[in-house]
Amino acid sequence: MVDFLLAPSTQLLFDALAAEPLDDSQLLPTLARLRRQLPAPFAAALVDQARLRRRAVAKFGAASQMFFVAEALEQATAEAPARQRAAQLDRLAPAGPLLDLGCGIGGDLLALARHRAVFAYELDPLRARFAAANVAAAGLAERVTVYPCDWTAMPLPPAAAAFVDPARRHAGRRTFDLHALQPPIEAVLHLRRQIDCLAVKVMPGVQELPTGCCVEFVSHQGTCKEAVLWFGRPDAPARWASVHRSDGWHSLANDGSRPPLGPLEPGMVLYEPDPAVIRSGALGPLCARIGGHLFAPDIAYLVAPHWHEQPFAQTFAVEEIHRFNLKVLNRRLKALQIGTVELLKRGFPQEPESLRPRLQLTPGGRSAAVILTRRGDEHWMILGQRLTTHPTGNNHAHTGRDD
What count of other Cβ atoms lies within 10 Å of the Cβ of residue 257? Predict the structure, then answer.
């Protein structure tokens, strides 16, 4: 089956499927047609790969030439974060090849191989074959050797630096414990006896950190998708956020300063920090950049008298502030002739989207943002206008998460 998928002639079949609808409503007719020329398992594998390639476009520019496993695609690093991390490793490491330990289908491997020779290891034989095929499709095969084996069970070749991507799922469920990773953090730390410069991709909710590392929280498309434990980085702060925007990468370090507290008033600008900024604890430095403060000590919304363009936060003009009451909210929406509303929340007990069917909107009216939050034991609603575009490009159905 794998040989069929990787055969050059099969790419012609992929190309023919590229223009066809492959949604669930068209799946059975497409499979029936393909089964007239292919064995049923081959037809199913072909369509499955074609559907995965469409999903992968959000992560990989060359997805139409790549091969995927569904779970590995979900966990694979997107191109922009992978290239940013590979550039850091290349800059920090002395001369020599790199290791990619747990390379999956090759998301990070492709980025690393653009800088140096790489020895890659992957326990799952199917993922290892797909990683090698993806590297070959990118024209990087001469720089990469993929070993389908357990890297913890054998001596590793000399290398200048290593990137490690332990599995963060067990029996289909995510783990948030570094000791429950596969391999566990203890096996990863054993590498330090051999390699000084080490980057370990972990879950963004990581809390307990090993000794001797600093941690980078990485945000891409408005989501903090991962954290990276860095070893052998005297140049880096203890914790920092790396945020990707259309103009590139931006970094904000946690310098240990605490955000001040202050009032929330109409006419102010509300800043919703990027999740990576919140995870890194860099609210104090962000307050200093905008001349702002928290209006509640346990709610990660900042406000400031003026708007300052920031890659580290979304911004909203604060027009009205009320204690939460659905009748009052609907009365104000009607008075302001609001036709579309973006709902956000932090510290609010109810999912905002559950309120949407009960909102009384004016057809053809203007847009607004409603931010549901809390100060102490009181629930509040802030009515205003978005000032910056959301990183995902969707300004109508975004619901802020509690971080």
Answer: 14
